[in-house]
């Protein structure tokens, strides 16, 4: 069945992996309201599909996304902005891991979309930045927070206050990027990473994602307490028994997500 979408395309490139491609080539994949709604709808559908264990989000070779759609934003007034980015917030709350595959520009909302994903695979052509300051605004999809967490205050302030961009090597040194790969291999690598995640026990993956994310919400003692409760919870699952039995029997585990 063809996609019901106008600004994205979805597919299942390998079993277990949902792929979402942003597709507004004439606007360098600028994130307008249609893209936001469609990405959330597609990701939510993958999230509730028991066959899907990880989701890849990608753009084009030239641009992951060059930001929120400036033409659309230019027409908004204060009251229009109240729930403007709720869809992106909901995307960040999904249980299924999101793998960003970034080539070319990831600017403004594009950088923020990449950062709200769980794993960020970048092509050697990727360029990151939060240039909102040049428009008289600031990041609005969590960029000031996630960038500060990812790269620290020194670089976050530098990027957010000057609006300059950074290349993929600076981004990796700063801790923004999980892996750099040659541009020609980007999608294959990102899909392979997603397939690896999808091969694991789904409830264990969900718990692991929640545990790491808790590090950004709370202090060490509370975070470790949260981790410990999730860890102990695994001992109520069949996948835990299967994973350990498979290791001891020197065979591959057959997880059932139970
Ligand atoms: C709408 C955009 C766009 C955007 C590019 N385009 N970025 N349209 N919103 N964010 C459009 C251009 O208008 C142009 O359309 C076409 O895409 C190609 O872009 P060019 O500028 O011609 O390409 P190039 O010269 O190669 O420059 C690429 C670029 C530049 C450096 C990425 O496009 C750029 O600076 N874009 C804006 C980046 C930005 O400021 N992003 C932050 C947005 S604010 P036409 O029709 O002329 O061919 C943001 C806020 C987040 O993201 C949420 C908090 C509020």
From TrEMBL:
Q: What is its EC number?
A: 4.2.1.17
Give the UniProt family note. Answer: Belongs to the enoyl-CoA hydratase/isomerase family.
Any one GO BP annotation for this protein: fatty acid beta-oxidation
**Full protein name:** enoyl-CoA hydratase
| Keyword annotations from UniProtKB, A to Z | Lyase
Q: Which reaction does it catalyse?
A: a 4-saturated-(3S)-3-hydroxyacyl-CoA = a (3E)-enoyl-CoA + H2O; a (3S)-3-hydroxyacyl-CoA = a (2E)-enoyl-CoA + H2O
Q: Which organism is it from?
A: Streptomyces brasiliensis
For this protein, the record's SUPFAM superfamilies field holds: ClpP/crotonase
Q: Name one GO molecular function term.
A: enoyl-CoA hydratase activity
Which EC class does it fall in?
lyase
Lyase listed as a keyword: yes
């Amino acid at each position: 069945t063809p996609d019901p979408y106008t600004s994205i395309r979805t597919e299942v490139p390998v079993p277990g992996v949902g792929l979402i491609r942003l597709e507004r080539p004439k606007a360098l994949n600028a994130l307008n309201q249609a893209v936001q709604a469609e990405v959330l709808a597609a990701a939510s559908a993958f999230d509730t599909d028991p066959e899907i264990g990880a989701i890849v989000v990608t753009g084009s070779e030239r641009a992951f996304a060059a930001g929120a759609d400036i033409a659309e934003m230019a027409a908004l007034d204060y009251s229009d902005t109240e729930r403007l980015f709720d869809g992106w917030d909901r995307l960040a709350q999904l249980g299924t891991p999101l793998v960003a595959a970034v080539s070319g520009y990831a600017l403004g909302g594009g950088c923020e979309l990449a950062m709200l994903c769980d794993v960020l695979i970048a092509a050697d052509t990727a360029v990151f930045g939060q240039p909102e300051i040049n428009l008289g605004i600031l990041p609005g999809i969590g960029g000031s927070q996630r960038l500060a967490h990812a790269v620290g205050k020194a670089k976050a302030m530098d990027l957010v206050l000057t609006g300059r961009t950074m290349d993929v090597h600076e981004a990796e040194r700063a801790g923004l990027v999980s892996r750099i790969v040659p541009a020609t291999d980007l999608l294959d690598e990102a899909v392979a990473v997603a397939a690896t995640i999808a091969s694991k026990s789904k409830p264990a993956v969900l718990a692991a994602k929640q545990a790491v994310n808790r590090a950004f919400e709370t202090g060490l003692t509370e975070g470790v307490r949260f981790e410990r409760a999730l860890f102990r919870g695994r001992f109520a699952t069949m996948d835990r028994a299967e994973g350990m039995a498979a290791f001891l029997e020197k065979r591959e585990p057959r997880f059932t997500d139970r």
